[in-house]
Amino acid sequence: MGGPARGYRWEAFGEGNTAARTHGLYQAGRAEQIRARVEELAAAVADSHPWTAGFEAERLAFARACVDEADLRAYLDTVGPLDEHGEERSAVRTLEKFSARAARCRAALGLSPASAAVILRNMAEVVRKHPCGSSGALAQPLAALMIEGRRALERGTQGRENVEGES
User: Fold this and answer.
1) What is the pLDDT of residue 163?
2) Which residues contact 109 (CB under 8 A, 6 or more apart)?
3) Sequence-separated (6 or more) residues with CB below 8 Å from residue 115
4) Is there a contact between 126 and 142 (Cβ–Cβ < 8 Å)?
5) Average pLDDT of each block of 10 consecutive residues along the chain (167 residues)?
6) Alpha-carbon distance 13 to 154, whole Å?
7) What is the per-residue pLDDT for 143?
8) For residues 117 and 125, what is the distance between their CA atoms, to the nearest angstrom?
9) How many helices (H) and strands (E) are present in the chain, helices listed first?
């Protein structure tokens, strides 16, 4: 009675065995381990997209989603999408969920093309209704959006000129 049930036997894990290897996204203490990367990315977003300055929690959520997504991609790049039995790893589905979360955060901050267009359209409407400018808590983010809107218009105009010039 002391041996394996039904005579099953398994070899001991040898050197280089990755059967127990996981991506580590759910390990205890991960938030503390990646805090610096998340804060650095959130600060970079604020620098490159000034209209997000008033949305620290959203920038941090976006940064965390991006870091998690990047780490999961790196894990899958290392071990591959299929396990030793040719089955898709559960990490592939987890990556899809994390990528979707990052996309939702990106859109909420106005960092995707579609959400940026909505923000710029809304900004144009605010400027049209209040041509004298604005003040208060939204003054800085609105000013940043106006600058970005002007840049987008210039890029669009230049693109049309290039296309028309090629005809």
Assistant:
1) 45
2) 45, 49, 52, 55, 58, 59, 62, 115
3) 106, 107, 108, 109
4) yes
5) 59 54 67 93 92 91 96 94 93 94 94 86 74 62 73 64 49
6) 61
7) 75
8) 12
9) 5, 0
Rg value, the chain, Cα: 24
Burial class (CB in 10 A: 0-12, 13-18, 19+), 51: buried
8 Å CB contact between 62 and 105: yes
What is the reported pLDDT for 167? Answer: 44
**Contact indicator for 117, 123 with CB cutoff of 8 Å:** no
CA distance 70 to 76: 10
pLDDT of residue 148: 74
Task: Provide the Cα torsion 48, 113, 35, 72; round to 10°.
Answer: -140
Handedness of CA 28, 75, 37, 113 (dihedral sign): negative
